[in-house]
Amino acid sequence: MAKRWTNDLTHADVTPEGAYLNRRQVMAGMVGLGVAGLGANVAHAAGLKPDSWETITNYNNFYEFGTGKGDPAKYAHTLTTEPWSIKIDGMVNRPGTYALGDILSKMTIEERIYRFRCVEAWSMVVPWNGFELADLLDMAGVKAGAKYVAFETLMRPEEMPGQKYPVLEWPYVEGLRLDEAMHPLTLMATGIYGKTIPNQNGAPVRLVVPWKYGFKSIKSIVRITLTDREPPTSWNKANRREYGFYSNVNPNVDHPRWSQASERTIGGGLLARRKETLMFNGYEKEVAKLYKGMDLAKHF
Ligand code: MTE
């Protein structure tokens, strides 16, 4: 599939992993793997330094495995991620239940180093591996009239102990407007640092929408539905005053209980400090046009 977007963030000189894939490396047909092999030729340009593998995989939100930041790393190993399929239905020309391996054989996996900003006002930089959601939607064939995309996480309380508790309504659901879903920044991630994505980060495939608060980036996806109505979303259902459908990162629109003007960087130890939150999490140039004329305080 054609590459639609060029990364502006690159690996810093030294990373905890030592070697991983070239950010432009293309991998097609490596069925079942979230990786694109190891490559040299890592670009060294001005950019952000990705957080370490340890930080990214030990400080998580995945309420299906508990509400503590360390719970997913401790408990998510119980999730069976193979075989895995995604049901694609609703307003598509080719609805069906697609085996993940078949999907991956048609997708281009590339690396995307993205800022990741949680609504709780912490942030990381993550080197994801994945494919553009637009390519998957093109594969299914979006019908005219579709306006939104709904996503659903696996429902399996015997493997996801948190689903036995009514912290949220299960399964976890999310949604995007179709133009957001088709945006080249919107990624379906299958790896981190060139390795298969760990269960606690949403294995085997999760959404990454880097200009929105992290909760929009739904994990362990089993269903994608094209629809003409704004779909319900888990956190909005839990508290619609605090979590809007759009949830674009916006330093000027505070959460009712805390400021969104700055964020705590996770990782970095003693050097960690708060930094100013950027409009659309730093992706304003790419995505501001999607919201032209919209009142972002009203459509938060
Ligand atoms: N997806 C599911 N299914 N369940 C969850 O609890 N948490 C969300 C999002 N996706 C969540 C989810 C939240 S609040 C955040 S901040 C990110 O996942 C965290 O992703 P990470 O653990 O990879 O950093």
Number of DSSP strands? 12
- CATH-derived topology: Sulfite Oxidase, Chain A, domain 2
Please state roughly what percent of the residues sit in beta strands, choosing from under 5%, 5-15%, 15-25%, 25-35%, 35-45% or over 45%.
Answer: 15-25%
Ligands and ions found: ligand MTE
Helical content stands at 10-25%
Q: What is the global morphology?
A: globular
Helix count equals 7
CATH superfamily: Oxidoreductase, molybdopterin-binding domain
Number of discrete domains: 1
Q: Can you tell me the CATH class?
A: Alpha Beta
**Unreliable parts:** 13-46
Please give a structural write-up.
The longest helix has 8 residues, at 133-140. The chain is 13% helix and 22% strand. The chain has a single domain, classed as Sulfite Oxidase, Chain A, domain 2 (Alpha-Beta Complex). Strands 3, 4, 7, 8, 9, 11 and 12 form a seven-stranded mixed β-sheet that branches. A five-stranded mixed β-sheet has the order 2-1-10-5-6. With 300 residues, it is of the alpha+beta class. A hairpin with an 8-residue loop joins β11 (262-265) and β12. Mean pLDDT is 88; it is low at 13-46. The protein binds ligand MTE. The site of ligand MTE has 16 residues, from loops.
Based on the model shown, name its key terms.
300 residues; 5-stranded mixed sheet; binds ligand MTE; single chain; 7 helices; 7-stranded mixed sheet; 12 strands; alpha+beta; Sulfite Oxidase, Chain A, domain 2
